[in-house]
Predict the 3D structure of the following.
Amino acid sequence: MSTLTDPPNEGFRLSMLINDTRYRSLTFQVIAAIVLALCIWYLGNNLIQNLRAAGLNISYTFLGDPAGYDINQRLVEYDSQSSHAKAALVGLLNTLLVAVLACITATVFGVVAGVLRLSNNWLVSKLMAVYVEIFRNIPVLIWIIIIFTIMTAVLPGPREFRGDNATASMVFDSFAFTNRGIYVPMPWFENGIFASTSMNWLLVLAGFAGSWLAAHQINVWANTKQESTGVRPKTTALILAAWLVPFLALMLIMGLTWEYPELKGFNFSGGIKVGGPLIALWFALSIYTGAFIAENVRAGIQAVSKGQTEAASALGLRPRRVMNLVVLPQALRVIIPPLISNFLNITKNSSLAIAVGYADITATLGGITLNQTGRAIECVLLLMLFYLTASLTISMVMNVYNASVKLKER
Amino acid sequence: MSDTHAHSIAFVRDTEIPPSPPPAGETGAVKWLRENLFSNAVNSALTIASLLVIYILLSKTLPWLLNGVWTTSSLAECREVLQGKTGACFSVLTERWNQLLYGFKYPSDQYWRPNLALVLLLFAIAPVLFFDLPRKLLAFTAVYPFLAFWLIWGGTILAPIVALVGFAAGAFVFQTYGKSSFAVGFFGAIAAAFAVWIIGGILIPEGASDNAMLQAVPSRDLGGFMLNLMLGVTCVSLSLPLGIALALGRQSDMPLIKWMCVVFIEFVRGVPLITLLFVASVMLAYFFPPESTVDLFLRVVIMITMFSAAYIAEVIRGGLAALPKGQYEAADSLGLDYPQAMRLIILPQALKISIPGIVNVAVGLFKDTTLVSVISMFDLVGMIRGPILASTEWNGVYWELLGFAALLFFVVCYGISQYSQWLERRLATDHR
Amino acid sequence: MKKSVILGAMTFAGLAAGAASAGTLDDVKARGKLNCGVTTGLVGFAAPNANGEWEGFDVAVCRAVAAAVLGDSNAVEFVPTTGKTRFTALASGEIDLLARNTTWTFSRDVDLKFEFVGVNYYDGQGFMVPKELGVSSAKELDGATVCIQTGTTTELNLADFFRSNNISYEPVPIETNAEAQQQYLAGACDVYTTDASGLAATRATFDDPSSHVILPEIISKEPLGPLVRHGDNEWGDVARWTLNALIAAEELGVTSANLSEMSAGTENPEINRLLGTEGTLGEMLGLSADWAKNAIASQGNYGEIFAKNIGEDTPVGLARGLNAQWTEGGLLYAPPLR
């Protein structure tokens, strides 16, 4: 047995490094390692020499210094005396905010357009085809600029709401659409249980969680009942109550009131403001990526073979159930992998925010901070690190989900 | 029987009734309308909504388009001509036509050079795109990059010739020695090419570019849509071989090489192109030797090539994974070594499967070349956002310029995607 | 062979410009061209015209330095830079001189290792508002939305100003002047802020400039000047004294019109030293004797450059103000040329 596996005992020759399969892969890897090390050494050496020549050094201490600039949209406490690191955090949250919002709406746009493109209605399907082709074939940067320009030009400025013969007016006296952003009424609590507003909202969220749990329990109870007796008890009213009663009770106890935006001084104040740059970027990213998702959805639905639909109909399922139980679950498997990469694209494309003045991380850390401190290498490295982490996290989460819906093959 | 019948019944028709036309609702346009637009209530509502959308869009844009002014020399004059009516000021396009297409620095008496390069590009790319053309045309494709380089940048013709000779020497060495041992041929080819380049680089006299046949144009002077096209074509063609290498590396069973490829691909795919462009514009300069500066164009080409290579590698990896395992085993059982198996069996099939994906990456990349405007290069979008909108004459002309840019990109990208669909149908060899 | 292989390959491809780093002055002379960093487009300061030639106030500084060093004011390669890329471009040697309305600040001088060679324009950050808002002072801007053109020290000054006056505002940072202006004109911001000279340049391009006012407050000191890399003093001297020569020429009454007459020799020894007919100033700098003459001949003296690009007769229409000669109450004061 050993004679079979043992190599023939002849002396080691240099040519065996290339010609003998036992050594060849090792040889190549050693060469690759040497080349890689040489490259790194070469680049690193250049970097050190260049920095020394310019009298610079790599240091991240600037992150602790006061940033000195203001940011118009901040999800956490921030003012011009906060540090550069805090400014980067504000930008980071803004990036995540616009990315999440755009992912949701892009999916909605994409699914609607994709389904409508398969519609029997000739006009609608052609219109959707035009939408998909136009948006897919023009760079997203141009779309972002165009949509921002449209928004600025079409919506009225706050100035036009002023005066007796104002040319613009608020919708229902509570929503204001201006080219600086959209102002909507803000709910708040007159006598909240906790002192801080965010705690009160957490309480409401907890209430919803409780409602969801209750609704779930009701469903479980109804299912067991149905299985034992064959009759499903009517649960609609119960579930509705489970959702509404705690919510309404909380709202009543805490005294929900609305704060309406009103024109004060230069701007509308009060209410919630959704900034113009955010809307423009959000909309541009969603409608652009929506066109790609529409194509994926269409391909996914078309990928389900017609036999599946026919078989389901033959079993006596109604069209809606055919869609829900047979076609969609199979289409999803085709749709989800490209959907993941579309979500990743949205996150990455949100870095174009600088074109519209939205304060995402590219605009704060990679823009004003870089500009003010001149720390180009440090800022760009941090920026790449963030996007890399975000992308890897998204693709990891989505891959886990993808694996769970994958066809289980043996 | 028939007789009696004839008598008992007053009239019997003995010829067929001529076919009457179908009811008005079941024919021609009406039928089409009913089936395609108004088949049920929901559909009718959708139709009406769509018509409304189309009407609104057209009523806003048509007067603007049709009233366009083409001949004035500034926005103020345009406004005067229009006298408050809706209308586009297309004069900016006619007046800045050259700047939009070639950037503001390319010498205007040399425009024929990029034009010729573009026309030749069509010839060079045709045998790659359409398989029916004679394969011999590929020889021109191989020469084209050097010819185009010389046409666009000008300067001494010796530089592209030396580069070409270097590649030719490499190919020759590979042909000669690659048959017996792939590794020897491969590394020998690289060494031969570099030897030719270095010797050639020394031989080219210092001032060769000064009075060359074509005036030398520094790459900073390139701009406009030409820059987008050049970046797109250069980076896609450079990233194809790199992408194939990365894809093969990722599939390799040598752990170190596989690991290097995975890290590279995942890193590049994980960051936005714009951060890579920041690297090109603010960081890369520190990584080159202190005594040299590398052209911004070249730095951008390096970064975009890396970017698209990572995406192309993933597409090709998909193609490799889609091949049945039997193909690999068949190649092994024939006694082919790895390079042979890849070259003769695996890659031809894998690449065929990947072509639509590669075309998609190419279209995406071409669109992404507009991002170079963010790092102060004057491509089409950069020209619009920079010099043209900043000029006194055309300050405030947004729609016409952006619309023009959108139209140019749409024409090119739509063309490529139509080609891709044609190719997909063409390549569909499975008989379903 | 000094250069590495990869660099050699790139150099012969014509894409990399290798140069021995004896000193920037020698590099520029060997290259025969000056690489000068400018903005990507600000009317009056640096912008390509319809023929693609760069012109403007900052551009004139580049051309004057090129004329002084190389004797040819067209031997300049203009490198457009953004607020982000300018410092790297200079530090990495891509450009020899940065003349891109950059404010001279302590940290840029000391921490980023640059050397400002002087001030070619004394600026300050100002505000522009539409007349119809009826605002007469920046302190009335409580709650306003402010469009900022990012890229210089604007964001920091703005934050400081509003904080010290204890009023609130909402910043909208915009990358390019064209887009910021579009926002401002559409009423998406109440105020537009950047350097006062930039405001005037922007207002000059408006449809109806008279319906916008520039508020009296100037909230910062913005000495804008050309800068070079730290540590290369010979080159720094060339840039510094070229700028000073332009300023001194105006003070001494040397213009592009009387230049040839004066360079034949005058009664005034200072003019003679400047124009190279007396003394060895050019030689000390490592330049030819007529360096200053060439610099002045290219674009005229400081006053002429100012008048031609941003002065009151141009669309930008800036008054001399702080940028008048010290003899006329301004801050321009060229050290003696001797």
